[in-house]
Structure formats: C-alpha cells, structure tokens
Specification:
This protein has 319 residues and is of the alpha/beta class. It contains 14 helices and eight strands. An eight-stranded mixed beta sheet has the order 3-2-1-4-5-6-7-8, sandwiched between helices.
C-alpha cells in the first residue's frame, strides 16, 4: 500500500527504507531547507543507509498527505505541534488518514504526550505510537528486534501492526498509551544519566541506575493514570540496552560527552524531555530523583559527579 513519511532524518529515512523493503510504495517528505533532505537528494542516502530507488522524495507537505492514507511522522518533538498546525491549515481531508508517530519525547514546556498533542490540534484519535528498542545501524544490517505499537483504539493498533510487521521487526500490542509514551520518552533521560556515569568512569553504577530509574518512572506513570507495570515493558526497560549501553545511543553519548566537556552536535531528545518531566513532577507531586539530578546538571550548573553520586551513595534505605 502507499505510505507517506514526514521527516527525513535518521528515523524518518529508516522508515522510508523499511516500508519500501516490505513492499509498500513510499513518499518521503523533508523541508527544502533541511540538510538531511539535501543530502538524500544529492546522494540517495545518508550516514546510515541508502534509500531504495523507488522511494519518492518530496518537499511538498500537501502532496505527501494526499499520497497515502497511512502517514508516519518522525520529527523533533519540539517541532511537532507546529507541524500539526501546518497540516491542519492545508486543504487535505484527514478523516480517513491513519497516523503513526515514530518518535519519543514530551512537549518541553507542558509535559504533554505526543498523542495528546495530536488529539488537541487535529481533534482526532486516529493515531498510533510506534516505539521500542533498536538502532537504524542494526536494522539495516538485517539484525532483528522487537518493538511495540499502541493506540487509544485497539482496532487501529492491530491494523497498523499488520501493515508494518516483518521478520525484521516483531511487534507487541500495547494497551497503555500513557505508560508507553511516558516510558519511551523518559528512557532518554535515563540514557543521559548512564552516559554521564560512563564519562565519570562509574559504569558499574548503571545497574543501580536501571533499577531506580524504572521505580521512579513507574510512580509517575501511575499518577498520570497509566499502568505502573508498563515501564517494565519494551517502551522503557526493554529499551535500556539500546539506550544505556549502546555506542549508537545519542542520549548516552551526549551524557558522556557532556561530563568530558566534548562537543556533541546531534539531537539528544532527553535534554528537552527532562524539562518536561520536571513539569510533570510539579503537576503530580511525584519525586523524580534521577531526572532531577540530570536537570540540575544540565540547567542549573550542578556538578555531575556530586549530583549522581548523591543518588547512589545516600544513607542506607529499603529498596
């Protein structure tokens, strides 16, 4: 079938590659000013992959939306609301469109989840969320993984899984949209903390970080109306290996480079997500010690070693 992808960065280009590989007709959209799009137009690929020849590139958003009834969005989280407002302004009938959000994050200033922003702007729940472990670099080498798909509507979840399942990606059906979105976003903050521990030569503490990180996020998810056990699934704990340990993880690498005072010039979504999590902590009254430590380091000039060691070297307490 026809699939449109909005966003031509690392994950957008992967979804174009993947959708084509499993037999769909694909149109990939990027803005005229996008360096990623310019590279794809010039070379047919990027640092991660070579696009199949039948993937159509376009800089026309309305054309992209009209091309298909299944539309993947993979853009920076903080640009998401503006994109939706632009989509809303176009002369496109969205009633029959199925949207899939292949991105992880929370709106920085409000703490809102992506599907909630989608519903708020487009007045529609016809949206699924596709998250879970895996790196583009591994997928394009035919290394399989498991991921999770969820939507407010179970029928939509199952329809989207049928469209995108393959031997390369095995899907699980998610039932807790709140927990999956919060968990998927928050694991990037835990990834930054893990990278900071690597940079401080305290990698041995990542086990404790994993244990405590899941606990504090489970409390937040429950307070927001989700299932506290969701945090132990593929969207959060199941993604820890790819985020806290992998050399491909941007958030882990950002944290390591930050404490080593090295320049990092790629997007690490966790830097905005931690601000959103502090807003949710304020709203719910749930303490988030690890997230707060990362926030203090990034935005309040806190000493990384002092903040992180305080988390793990406190007086003895019950687990």
């Amino acid at each position: 079938m026809k699939i449109s992808i909005i966003g031509c960065g690392r994950w957008g280009s992967f979804h174009a590659w993947y959708s084509s590989k499993i037999g769909h007709s694909v149109k990939l959209y990027g803005r005229a000013t996008s360096k990623n799009m310019q590279q794809l137009e010039t070379t047919g690929g990027n640092d991660y992959l070579k696009l199949p020849e039948n993937v159509q590139l376009t800089k026309n958003l309305e054309e992209t939306l009209n091309f298909a009834n299944v539309i993947i969005i993979s853009v920076g989280t903080q640009n998401f609301r503006a994109l939706l407002e632009e989509i809303k302004s176009l002369n496109v009938n969205l009633a029959e469109k199925k949207f899939v959000l292949c991105m992880k994050g929370l709106e920085r200033d409000t703490g809102k989840r992506l599907s909630a922003i989608f519903e708020e702007v487009l007045n529609s729940q016809n949206v699924a969320v596709w998250v879970g472990p895996g790196h583009v670099q591994d997928f394009v080498q035919s290394l399989p993984n498991c991921m999770v798909m969820t939507a407010a509507n179970e029928k939509l979840t199952r329809e989207i899984v049928e469209i995108f399942k393959s031997p390369l990606i095995r899907f699980y059906y998610g039932t807790d949209l709140i927990g999956i979105e919060i968990g998927a976003a928050a694991k990037n903050v835990i990834g930054i903390a893990a990278g900071m521990l690597d940079g401080l030569n305290c990698t041995s503490l990542k086990g404790a970080l994993m244990a405590r990180g899941t606990v504090e996020l489970s409390r937040l998810i429950e307070s927001l109306g989700g299932d506290k056990m969701t945090v132990y699934g593929l969207s959060h704990l199941g993604d820890y290996e790819a985020t806290l340990f992998s050399q491909h993880s941007r958030n882990r690498k950002f944290g390591e480079d930050f404490v080593l005072d090295k320049k990092f010039d790629k997007l690490a979504e966790g830097t905005d997500t931690v601000v959103a999590l502090m807003e949710l902590s304020k709203i719910t009254g749930v303490e988030l010690p690890i997230c707060r430590a990362v926030f203090k380091i990034l935005y309040e000039n806190g000493d990384p070693e002092e903040q992180l060691m305080n988390l793990f070297m406190r007086s003895t307490k019950s687990e």
